[in-house]
Amino acid sequence: MMIGLNNTLKILMFLIGCGGGYLYLKSGAQDSGQYLNVYNWYGMIPKDVLDEFETETGISIRYDLYDNNEILEAKLFAGNSGYDIIFPSASPYAVRQIQAGVYEKIDKTKLSNLRHVDPVIYEQMRLADPDLEYTIPYYWGTFGFAYVEEEILKRMPDAPTQSYRMLFDPDVVSKFQGCGVTLLDESVDVYPAVLAYLGKDPRSDDLDDLQSAQDHMKKIRPFIKRFSSSRFVNELVGGESCLAQAWSGEAQLAQDRADEVGKKIHIRYVVPQEGGTLWIDCIAIPKGAPHVNNAHKFIDFLMRPQVSARIANAIKLAVANKDATAYIDSKIKNDPTIYPKADVMAKLTLDKPQNASYERYRTRLWTEFRLGKIQ
Fold first, then answer.
1. Under 8 Å CB-to-CB from 294, ≥6 apart: which residues?
2. Count of other CB atoms within 10 angstroms of residue 357
């Protein structure tokens, strides 16, 4: 998952003001049992929410930031990270981290607010954590695409803007080559989308299906400008691209960024009608966390419906809390690109981690695709 540029810049300014390292530490706090060390994505919990937890509990939060799963995973696998709370993406990261034994089991008897978790998202988490022993789903969203409406309709007035045809139909995507088309830069994000477009199971582990996806992808390779995960918001706003495979959350915030800089464009985000995959960022407690009891208090606090809603309203992302809906701004909870309708949700699944041989083959095909060496 990636987060919005606006929130990133605000948090970075806060980081600079605090001198780096742990972001948020109540003045005068001592190294005692009244600490909580949190490691999270940029811009995902507003400071006033952290302030409220501190005031209510007397626990001082030390808050550190990362911008990709690889950084988090490296710290976990190195051991003794010092963190009490982390927010890994469910698949494939939480899956292999659970297998590696780097999480504490969550004591659900300490979570009075567990009852508020959305059962649909909680059930999806079973793919990553079958017995739901180590993780609690918190943020979630979809994979789709974003486009600059003015640029797309100028080139194709009848563009199929609700379909993955925009990216994967050679006759369609070729029309947008001149204004820039980007795909996400990880194979795990692209191949399931292509499989969904082809009418196959996005979670297929069949090598023939993978090869079919590759054979199709070579038809669109000439029209792909670049592979972009961390920059696609800026590229859409800045006019470097007009069509981008994207995550929800980042894509919605692109319009805010365009408005801030006075760009008179409309950036739309679409969950394609073909369906595909969703993403979940969950809460976990690293093995050896120094303040496990405080970690449970924080998880339970975050799972309060009003707190979850404040977070959703601030970051414009879906939260896995069914009872937060009443407190979420109408503009957000009624936005089908943030909270998809039931018929779309029925077509979305969490991506399945694949076996090592499949991953090696997919990585080889992906390298060939990126380099444009598909024969």
1. 33, 34, 35, 36, 57, 59, 84
2. 10
Domains in the chain, CATH or no CATH each:
5-141+279-343 (3.40.190.10), 142-277+350-371 (3.40.190.10)
Contact present, 2 and 247 (Cβ < 8 Å): yes
> At CA 162, angle to CA 158 and CA 166, rounded to 5?
70
pTM: 0.81
User: Which residues are CB-contacts of 62 (< 8 A; sequence separation ≥ 6)?
Assistant: 22, 23, 24, 25, 35, 36, 37, 38
Express each pLDDT in 6-59 by its tens digit: 444 344 434 433 333 444 444 334 445 799 999 999 889 999 999 999 999 999
Question: Hey, what amino acid is at 283?
Answer: I
pLDDT digits (tens, 9 = 90+) for 298-352: 999 999 999 999 999 998 899 999 999 999 999 999 998 899 988 888 888 888 7
221 to 170, 225, 283, 369, 373: CA distances (angstroms): 9, 9, 37, 7, 10
